[in-house]
UniProtKB/TrEMBL annotation:
It comes from Borreliella burgdorferi. SUPFAM superfamilies: P-loop containing nucleoside triphosphate hydrolases. The keyword DNA repair does not apply. Keywords: Plasmid. Residues 4-88 form the AAA domain. InterPro entries: AAA_dom, DNA_Partitioning_ATPase, P-loop_NTPase. The keyword Transport does not apply. It comes from the Bacteria. Signal peptide: none annotated. This is Probable plasmid partition protein.
Amino acid sequence: INISNNLDLIPSYISLHKFNKEAITFKEIKLQKQLLNLQSNYDYIIIDTNPSLDYTLTNALVCSDYIIVPITAEKWAVESLELLKFSISDLAIDIPIFLIITRFKKNNTHKALFSSLKDNKNFLGLIYEREDLNKKIAKNDLFNLNRDYMLEYKNILSKFITIIMSR
């Protein structure tokens, strides 16, 4: 779907869950083969996956140069990050993982996670929890590009681009 002259989106489909169950040869590299046909048309290809360790994630990982993981400041999210790192090492690929803390609150638990990540060279920043943002998402409403939460995302994106351009 062409959104604008510099942005195309390919939506996911609910039927994609069948992909994990089907017996397909070289299932792990299906996406990589398809993206080879597209990569000359784009500066960036961003793949948003569901948070599960299945073949859709494996496909995204094997064709990625970078991974950005949004995590909440909760114990299970940090544990999931370790599972992701294990899966990546299982695939024998070397991909830098960048982290964003989302839905950040100013409580002690969240501050402790932030403190443990803030000096990591691949930590991109945090997005504060905001009720107005939650309401916009719930209503599928348009986002105000000048709101503070959008500026947080823009700053994170700028930091990421600066890092990858310097490599």
